[in-house]
Design a protein that fits this description.
- The protein has seven helices and seven strands, in the order H-H-E-H-E-E-H-E-E-H-H-E-E-H.
- By secondary structure, the protein is of the alpha+beta class.
- The strands form two sheets. The chain has a five-stranded mixed sheet with strand order 2-4-5-7-6. The protein has a two-stranded antiparallel sheet with strand order 1-3.
- A hairpin with a 3-residue loop joins strand 6 and strand 7.
């Protein structure tokens, strides 16, 4: 939280001390300040999301949701970012499916995965992020695959931990907080689901999400905690 504030103070103090600085320089510095404000807002939003999910009484506003339509909306929001980064963004639906989800929270989880695939791709000419939707009689499956920089093997078990960043310099450059994947995992666990990662450095990453089509309410907090722990173990 302090880093963006420090950067903004340095930039502002520099402008104040320059006196008659050229207009172009003012614009450049104000642009940098604007980016730092965006980064601060992102950090605060991520922290607030975690605080809400840490509350024991968190409630999911579940309803039957058209998963294809939900994914279409996510990709629509992220296409401008993909275009700027020259990344091809595609959705492949094997079969149409509806599932009981909290659409706002679950959209955030999948959006984090797709956004990471775009930001950390690194391929300027043939980069892609492909989202695949599938289902069977019991589960909905969502796969987010990219051909980006990949994640080193010794880092793969750590990426879902809070504040963990594989490439700290690149995370600062892209506005990463090290909280996105932690939020994603918590949301998926709240939906009685699991998430798995497979990745090869220099070749890309694939995140696979599985959630039940029908959400079955646990009768007691202890049963809910037991189910959550079971999902964690199955994921590992």
């Amino acid at each position: 939280l302090k880093t963006p504030i420090t950067s903004m103070r340095v930039l502002a103090d520099s402008l104040i001390g320059m006196g008659d600085a050229p207009l172009e320089l003012y614009k450049e510095f104000m642009g940098d300040i604007s980016k730092e404000i965006d980064r601060e807002a992102k950090i605060i939003d991520d922290l607030l999301s975690l605080v809400r999910m840490d509350r024991s009484a968190i409630v999911l506003s579940r309803k039957e949701t058209d998963m294809h339509e939900m994914l279409e909306q996510i990709l629509k929001r992220l296409r401008p970012l993909a275009k700027v980064n020259r990344i091809e963004l595609t959705l492949h639906t094997v079969r149409e499916v509806s599932a009981d989800v909290d659409e706002v929270k679950f959209s955030l989880a999948i959006m984090n995965l797709v956004e990471n695939g775009i930001k950390y791709n690194g391929n300027q000419n043939d980069g892609y992020v492909q989202v695949t939707l599938d289902a069977d009689h019991q589960f909905c499956y969502i796969r987010v695959e990219d051909n980006g920089i990949g994640i080193p093997e010794d880092q793969q078990e750590l990426v879902f931990e809070r504040f963990h960043r594989v490439d700290k310099a690149r995370s600062r450059e892209t506005g990463g907080t090290g909280l996105g994947l932690a939020i994603t995992k918590e949301i998926i666990l709240l939906h009685q689901g699991i998430i798995r990662l497979s990745s090869e450095e220099g070749k890309g990453s694939t995140f696979q999400v599985r959630i039940p089509l029908k959400y079955i309410e646990s009768s007691t907090p202890a049963q809910a905690a037991s189910q959550k722990e079971k999902n964690r173990k199955e994921e590992n």
